[in-house]
Amino acid sequence: MADAALHGKVTFVGAGPGAADLLTFRAARAIADADIVIWAASLVQAEVLDHAREGAEILDSAALSLEDVVAVYRRAHDEDLKVARIHSGDPALWGGTQEQLDRCVELGIEVEIVPGVSSFSAVAAIVQRELTIPEVAQSVILTRLGGGKTPMPEGEEVREFARHGTTMALFLSAARSGQLTQELLEGGYPTSTPVVIAYQATWPEELILRCTLGTLEETVKEHKLWKHTLFLVGPALSASGTRSHLYHPGHFHGFRKADPAARKALRAQGATP
Q1: Which residue of 18, 86, 148, 162 has the fewest C-beta atoms within 10 A of its own C-beta?
Q2: Cross-strand pairs, 229
Q3: H or E stretch at 195
Q4: CA 174 centroid distance within chain
Q5: pLDDT digit of tens for each residue in the chain (273 aa)?
Q6: Do the beta carbons of residue 120 and residue 230 sit within 8 Å?
């Protein structure tokens, strides 16, 4: 590119799972500063547009192809405009963000990304569960079922991830709940594994269901869920919290000294405070 200077700006805004009050302050400022706002009307509540300034151009991304969106970015470059591209959830996950970022770089547009609340953490908050319980689950696997519109890379099958037996958050999988159940079972989860099914989390239409892996398919079909649905699966969803070493009086760090007797007790348990 002959002219290395950047012109215009595109800010990819993570709007969270839907509720407008889950926007970050930075996200709200980006929307307020924008000359053009592109938003996903079917995935984000309309109240997020309350942050847009009067006179801003508002476009619904549902009616736009990638080429249409890139044309807006090209106009932003040519006219030195600011664009807020609002994505549901967090732009780092299943948002088609990278292909847009690549085009912005090619066009010579300044880019910023504002992270958002992902639906998996929003659902965990709604059901008041920590997903990483000590001695039960210390990892969270974010994935989706294969066989949909976007092929899964080899080795990323749900059944393979399920072999870890930890907490899983499964997106974009409700339309094939039978296949989802089968792969989770094949991976080693017992039928009694607790499951949270969340439809339209944080929306007025929100529906939160608790079941087990053995009843997942029938629960999904009973409520006719096929999109906008997230699954949380794993033993951490019902396990009691165990004592964390972080707040144990025998644990020390840069801001707190350990109680000698408590530290000795921890060492006797084989811990390394």
Answers
A1: 148
A2: 199
A3: strand 194-199
A4: 16
A5: 444 678 999 999 999 999 999 999 999 999 999 999 999 998 999 999 999 999 999 999 999 999 999 999 999 999 999 999 999 999 999 989 999 999 999 999 999 999 999 999 999 999 999 999 999 999 999 999 987 777 889 899 999 999 999 999 999 999 999 999 999 999 999 999 999 999 999 999 999 999 999 999 999 999 999 999 999 999 999 987 666 666 667 666 666 777 677 677 667 766 554
A6: yes
Q: Which stretches within the chain are classed as H helix? A: 25-33, 66-79, 97-107, 119-126, 158-162, 177-186, 216-222, 260-268
Rounded to 5 degrees, φ, ψ at 82 are -105, 130
Cβ 162 vs Cβ 156: under 8 Å: no
pTM, entire model? 0.86
- Kindly give, in sequence order, each residue whose CB lies less than 8 Å from that of residue 43, ignoring residues fewer than 6 positions away: 15, 18, 88, 228
Determine the length of the chain: 273
